[in-house]
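Hi,

Apologies if this is the wrong queue. I'm a grad student, and the batch job for Flagellar hook-associated protein 1 from Clostridium pasteurianum DSM 525 = ATCC 6013 produced an output file that my downstream script rejects. I'm not sure whether the problem is my script or the file. Here is the sequence I used:
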Amino acid sequence: MAGLFSTLNIGTSGMSAQQKAIDVTSHNIANANTEGYTRQRAIIEATRPYDMPSVNNAIGAGQVGTGAFVSAIQRVRDDFLDYQIRNETSTKGTYETRDNYLTQVESIFNGLSDTSISTLMGKVFNSWQSLSTQAQTSSAKTLVAQQSVALTGELNHTYSQLQNLKADSQSYLNQQVVEVNSIFDQIDSLNQQITRVKVSGSEPNDLMDKRDLLLDQLSENFNINIDKKSYDGIDLKPVDSGNISDTALVKSVDNTNVKRFSYVSAIEPAVDSDGNKISGEYKVTYYKNGDTTSDSNKMEVYVSMTADEAKQLDENRVLWANSDGIAINADGTALGTTTVDTPLAFSNLNLFTPSSGNIKGAMSVQADIDTYIDQLNNIAKALAFTVNAVHSGSNTADASSDDLPFFVNGDTAVYTTDSNGNSVLTGGNLSSVLDSESEITAGNITVNKEILDDPTKIKASTTGDTSVDGDGDGNRALAIAQLRDKLITIQNINSNTSRSDFITNFSADDNGVMTVQNSANGTTLEGYFKDVVNKLAVQGQEAERVIKNQTTLLQSFQQSRASVSGVSIDEEMANLIQYQHAYQANAKVISTVDELLDVVINGLKK
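Support response: The file is valid. Your script probably expects a header line. Output copied below for reference.
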């Protein structure tokens, strides 16, 4: 039955409820600039009123309330906005990583600057043109040799820089693997804490904010799926599962039966007991959870792979693993150990191939760098094949028809010294160099040291025999200079292409010099390089355009989320005044009841 003491309790409950509301408002204000913080609000509800009317409880004017209480402290959060932001963040992450590395590739290629490959190639052909008009002068031949050295040096340097950039992108990929595995562990720990707090009947708002912030960070690396479970627990999976049957990275229940990622640090050709390479077999070294700080994490497996599969693994490098970091089969079982005699099939390696995020960006840019390296190798090979063919008068790399190749494979070139102290290629050394001509790349192409030591050996005349005519007519030098405008099928070159495979249309020109003829579907050397640079520019522009679009889109979503979940100081101050007045009013109720009780108790004495 209601009375003054009941009224006193109502005032007390009101003060308590307003005080908690003030505490929540203070917490919001204190965290107004805290990253990932979600605005909270106190839900104030009426307490249970006195019992319903019954036989023993006569109907009066109506139910009398008993006060107010804070039923919950809620986070103000829109899950759909979280989904949109994380999805778009993942896409932005892909192109931010790509833009970063493609910008560096552009810087390496130097475009059309004075020191670019295109400019140096033009200077080489110009020097051959000059030699054709003064074929008997040693200075003109020296200029050809030196300009060619400058070109091969730039090819070598560009190749090396691209390889270093690829290694850097792989290091970045390794760092991302370590980072995401750490985030999984942090989310799992928060997941368990949140569940325990919810079971106890409280709201783990700040813990959920920390978990959401980690999920936002994780979405930069790859796109994620979040399944909500009981007591605010979550199961976390990547959107892209590949062949793995159970891809849970975090679980609210059975949280030890989860997956992780490991990083492949090396892919080497396997060798037998005699040290000979085994065709189609590789030794793959990976580190559990990507942690390369300890050899105890190092794992080695032997795998049968084609060249294309090895390239795919080289560009990807992230393996699905169990909770201990050991690479797994599709059914989740560990790969176990292998030997040279019992290699795994490539299909046993389960690569993590996300469709978006920083990890995807790092993987895709490695494929791009490999493509640019291949195209650079094509230029080096085409240059060596065409110049060597015209210089020797033969489209076959054979010691019987080419006694002085102009460009050689620097990895295999071994020289002897003549009586004048100059380097020479003879006998087996010459055959070895010519046999390895098909293995020329931008990384190993160089000018024959025999020519560098004695540039007068450069063949400039129609006959090519300096001892007979002293290079009087310069027609061979002219034919080499004209290679600048020859249409050749550079795009058809691969790692196994030889000079005879590449130059199939080889015949005498008007001056009687054997030279390369135009191909209907070919392109010039300089044109091919410019196409490579233009493609690179387009890729860079595409990345910049997507980043700009994604930034605008994300800003819109983030503003929407901030309007829902962010702390507005003005709004919180208004709430604070509101709760303050309510608190004071409840205090006035208590003061009034106190005066009434004084009348009832002390006034009866009079």
